[in-house]
Amino acid sequence: MKIKIEDIPSQGLHKEMSYDPQELDMEIENHPYSLPVKFSTPITAIADIMLYDKELVVEVVVRYKLKMVCSRCLEEFEVGFEKRFIFNYNTRGIEVIDITPDIREEIILRYPQKPLCKPDCKGLCSGCGVNLNVERCRCKRENQEVENGQS
Question: What does pTM read for this prediction?
């Protein structure tokens, strides 16, 4: 989102923009230290822009939905986000400011480190690997069957 300083009226400026996450290189596919992050919607940015002497204050609200993999059960899930940022810029000697890199950076910094499909996700059984949100653990049953002579 580019802001031309001379176009900002005294009462401020309101701008809206939609970004394609792929164009901004926002998605994480095969990173060795991260679970995949995919956007399921464009990124919508709504900015209220005020100029105070030579200081530009931009309040931005971004909305988007992410498809992520739960860090406990490894199931894919979708979650919506609405984030608010405030950026301050010194405009001395500057005619146009592009806030897109700052918006991108703030979104990336707010990616969940350990995404959960739900707060009480039970994860996977470390013994048999079943998703404990969906079914009961087989470990006890398998051990009991072996002890009873069944296979």
Answer: 0.74
